[in-house]
Design a protein that fits this description.
By secondary structure, the protein is of the alpha+beta class. It is built from 2 helices and 3 strands. The two termini are 19 Å apart.
């Protein structure tokens, strides 16, 4: 099996289609903007932040068993 990451549009166009993990890009962008704003405002006083984001499996034909399970 072959699995990619970020679910870029090209993964749908490959043969076989590449199974990938889709990330919540809007949430990632919002978090990056908040962190950048905090770093600009607080400078060296900015404290490290750890965020967790959920990913979604987008199964396509590059995953063994996917092609067999789809009509």
């Amino acid at each position: 099996a072959l699995v990619g990451f970020d679910n870029v549009p090209m993964t749908e166009l490959t043969t076989p289609g590449l199974t990938t993990m889709a990330m919540p890009m809007s949430e990632l962008g919002d978090a990056a903007a908040r962190l950048l704003d905090a770093q600009i405002r607080l400078g060296a006083n900015h404290k490290p932040v750890r965020d967790t984001f959920s990913a979604e499996l987008v199964a396509r034909a590059s995953t063994l068993g996917y092609a067999e399970a789809t009509p």
